Amino acid sequence: MKLLLICTLTLISFCVILCGAKKGNTKKGSKSNRIIWGKEANIEHYPYVVGLLAHNGNRVFCGGSIIAKSWVLTAAHCIATVKRFKDKVEVTLLPEHIEGSIARGNATYIDGSRYDTCDHDIKEYVYHDDYVSPQGNDLDGNIGILHVEQPFTCTHETVIKLNSKMDHGRGKFGVQPGWGQHKVSSDEYSRILRFFKVFVLPRKLCNIHFWLTNYNPEGKICVASVLSRPCKGDSGFPLVVNISGKNLQIGEEYLYINLSKSTNFSCTCTVKLAGQKTLSVPG
User: Fold this and answer.
1) CA–CA separation, 229 vs 25, rounded Å?
2) Where is the Peptidase S1 domain (predicted)?
């Protein structure tokens, strides 16, 4: 079976609301750009999570989820940045992030200081067409995939199933794990895996929020968290909800509290990345 090649799956990026943060506030030291009070976790509980590390350090710049034996789902802005002008779109790849970087799995401590970790060299990367569309914005299609050299076969490296239904998870509690910033008072990233719980709001409540913020609610979901929230270093990590006893990824955190249009993401699409390239994702 080929994952994402045969079926077009809907993955919905999510936002955090009702937690005292306001859209666009990224001032250094502001609580809105910090993940705070996340609880410590063990990779055994989130074996589908990987941290993305630059080749010259042990601090994550983004995260991702294992969606197939050699593939990781992450945020497109972890791969490239986009600037839109009246007559063109300027795409800047982030070689300091991706080229020579690794996806680290099997890790409770992301710096590798305790227990065994498994590193996987990133050899290919691709982002969604909508992310670089002249008519879009950098919130649209903010999804990317990474192809790694070494398959995910370590003890605590397993595939997470992706949600294929728009309303899956609404009205339920979900979790997001990650190694991003976790203190209000410093820029320190967490060495140990942490998670926080969120409530996936019903559609009616979500629509009210979008109406108040002048966003189009189509293809979006909202989550609420009173004390904890994602932040720097948490981009690309999965939002997971347990449905009928099975963990499903229903979204991925990509830019703090910003919103994204829902994205039908199939790897049969052709994307522009150093020329035309089509990637398939074997199961």
Assistant:
1) 14
2) 35-251
